[in-house]
Specification:
about 120 residues, alpha+beta, three-stranded antiparallel β-sheet, Holo-[acyl-carrier-protein] synthase, fatty acid metabolism
Length: about 120
Amino acid sequence: MIKGIGIDIIELYRIKKGMEANTRFVDRILTENERHLFNQLQNHHRKVEFLAGRFAAKEAFAKAVGTGIGKLSFHHIEVLPDSHGAPVISAHGYEEYRSFISITHSRDYAVAQVVIEAGDS
């Protein structure tokens, strides 16, 4: 049974501006494992897309569980690729749920949608 659905959209320029204005911006959004992937990217625009996608994914997850970011922090939520490169989302304290995620980018935006499914009872 579906427990929640969340979606978020973020302008890439806002993420780029945050990265340029605050050296700790990336650290506030990404977990250590996500930062490792981020730091491997060579292209600055791809880094902006990656960070924007993770930001949108974490916001979408928080909306799907109904808490919003604040009660649930960016570091409670992690988005890593599976063996095929598709994003997989997990969150500390929400291990009993199955979560499904899709992230997409356009020239100006990153969008993420999360569906959370409650386990069988």
